[in-house]
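hiii, so i know i said id send this last week but things got crazy w the move. better late than never?? heres the sequnce for the chain we talked about at the cafe, plus the structure i predicted for it. fair warning i was half asleep when i ran it
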Amino acid sequence: MFEVRPHVYLLAGNRLFREALTRILNKKGQVRVVGANALGPDSGPHIAELKPELLLSDAMAISKPNAQLLPALRKVLPKLKIIMIGMDPDPELFLCAVRVGVLGYVLKDASALEVAAAVRTVINHEVSCPSSLLSVLFRSVAQAGNNYPTAKTKREVGLSRREQQLIPMISEGLTNKEIASRLDLSDQTVKNHVHRMLRKSGATDRLMIVERWREVRR
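okay and structure toks below
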C-alpha cells in the first residue's frame, strides 16, 4: 500500500547544503522534500501554497527584517512544525526561536544526518534540542514564572488577565507589533490593551505601567 510521507520544505541560504540535505531526507524515505530555496520576498506565500507539515529553516527566518515570517506561516498553517538549522548556541537566539513555536533547534556544527534525525524526532511529535541549551530553557521558564503578575495586581490595579500577560513583554521593551506577533493578536488589539492599562493604572507612559505593577508586587 502506498504510504503518504510527510512533506518538508527547506529554507536555507546555502545551496550546497540544501541539495545535500534534500538528497539525504528523500533517500531516508520517511519524508518528502517538496521545496528547497533561500529566503526571499515570496517565500511565505510559496511555502503556504505547498502546505508542508514541517519547515526546516536557517536563522534568516528569525532575523529582524523577517521577524513576522514564521508567525505569519503558523497562522495559515497552524499544524506546521518548525526546525531551525545551522544555529548558534546563543541563548537569546534560542529563546527567540522557542517563542515563535520552533520544536527543533540544530546547531551549525551538526551533520546532515543529525539534521535528518531531528526531522524524524519532530515528525514523531517530539522536540529536538541540544542538551547544552536545555538549562537555558528551564531558567527562562522559571524566570517567567517569577515575573508573572499575581492576582494582587488584578485586585489593586484592575488589570484583566490578558493585560497582565502584556506586562513582562512591555518590561522587555517590545513594541506593540512585536507583542502582537508573540501573542498572535492584531497590532490594534495590543494598542487598545495598552491604552486601557494606562488608564487603569494612572500611568502616563508604558514604563510607568511596569513601575506601578512592580509597586503592587512589593
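btw The chain has two domains: 7-139, 148-217. thought thatd interest u
miss u guys!!
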